[in-house]
Amino acid sequence: MENQNWTSSEETRTGDLTKGPVWRVIVRFAVPLLIGNILQQLYNITDSIIVGQFLGKEALAAVSASFFIYYFIISLVIGIGSGVSVVVSQYFGARQYKKVQRAFSSFFIFMLVSGIMLSIIGIIFAEPIFRLTNTPEEVIPEAVKYFKIYIGGTFLFVTFNSIVSILRGIGESNRPMIFILISTLLNVVLDILFIVGFGWGIEGAARATVAAQGIAMCIALFYINDRHPLLSIKKQDLVFDAKLFKQGLKIGLPTSVQQCAISLGLIALLGIVNSFGTDTLTAYGAAGKIDTIITQAILTLSGALSAFCGQNMGAGKLDRVKAGVRFSMWVSSFFSIIAFASIFFFGEQMMMAFTHDPTVIAIGKEYLLIVGGFFIIHGALNVLNGALRGAGDTLFTMVTSLISLWIIRIPLAYWLSGELGKTGIWWAIGLSISIGMIATYIYYKAGHWKKRCLIKLEKIEKIKP
Questions:
Q1: Is 96 helix (H, G, I), strand (E, B) or coil?
Q2: 3-state secondary structure of 2
Q3: Torsion of CA 91, 97, 103, 104, to 10 degrees
């Protein structure tokens, strides 16, 4: 066993998810994760609310358009990050702590270099990208201003994300929650200061986000270097381990392709939405943010279950993995009902946080009611995907995502929007989720994912002559 001077008390503090009642372990880990995820969503939501209230619907549309394009640009590195996180959680569950540190160091170096490269690419090609996605002409100037500053801070976002995701991978969700809380509060304060106080317009919103993210990254970096010997990345600890990174790449690359395909699909869907004008684009962006934040209680289970399953697969405790999936399914269903009820009764008030334009509010509420009707199915899909990722089986989730998005959602949205107008787009989203859920459930029951654990593969390699 590689203890790397890592004591049992430190292990307990960090978050061993292989011991204790399954429901209690998942809830204890998931609650700070939920709060952290909601706070992370508040980043874009804060920008949107303040921009929408003080700068108008064209500026709000610019923020909405920027989000989908930004998501595409960073999806590749974030997907690889999720793969390394699985490697870390499995090695942590197997108590191979030296490999945990080396995997994280390799991941951090990759994220830093990739972030800088993505910033440069995004700044150079900002305007052509918006024109390619059929963004309304009156929105493009503001969108380019916002996007260039926002993507300029990508290296800060991805390095901060690397620290947060690895901490979660080893079962520590409290500290990431605190870091995200700090960055969110800073973002709110700086948004108001830069937009309302200094009058910097939409550029102020982007500067506020980048500044808040940079400060939070520095705090997180100080924490792991000063207080967390398992994850220290001081100069002497910065080592790029090609073998460990390759393992993470093997798991993460399908997720990266999946994330890129999803983000490209969102951009393609955005092109269909844009064809209905600025009001629909504004409503789609605002309602999409409400949709995201209100379902975090459901979607958080995917991240919590991924870390839980990763550690327990590494420790060889398959029964706990199955029990975790069953419990997460029940919790997901409960919160799905609560989420839809909230939208049903308060959807209009939620939209009014972004804008008071009655047309935009009506379109947004319609989106929320239709997509919200599929919350239970979406939640179940994410629970199963979380379990599969934790086991290291990401190839299947990639294939199903590609099929449900590109073969089902986009063509269906194009056809239904011609038949039903913009309402057809919302129905296409829900129907594609349903088909993906059916395929994933069949695959999960078949049980092929049980053979994907890295630790078993490594043990086999060790006994080879």
A1: strand
A2: strand
A3: 110
> Considering only CA atoms, which of 87, 236, 220 is closest in space to residue 156?
220
Q: How far is Cα of residue 49 from the mean position of the Cα atoms in its chain? A: 21
pLDDT of residue 465: 30
pTM: 0.70
The three-state secondary structure class of 233 is coil
Is residue 304 within 8 A of residue 29, CB to CB? The reply is yes
- H-helix or E-strand spanning residue 344: helix 318-352
The values of phi and psi at residue 96, to 5°, are: -100, 80
Q: Following CA atoms 167, 168, 173, 179 in sequence, which dihedral angle do they give, to the nearest 10 degrees?
A: 50
State how far the Cα of 345 lies from the Cα of 331, in Å rounded to an integer. 22
Q: Cβ distance 413 to 269 under 8 Å? A: yes
**What is the pLDDT, as a whole number, of residue 343?**
92
Weakest-pLDDT range from 241-250, 308-317, 448-457? 448-457
Dihedral (C-alpha) 433, 438, 444, 448: value to the nearest 10 degrees? Answer: -100
Angle, vertex CA 282, rays to CA 276 and CA 283, nearest 5: 85
β-partners of residue 96 are: 2
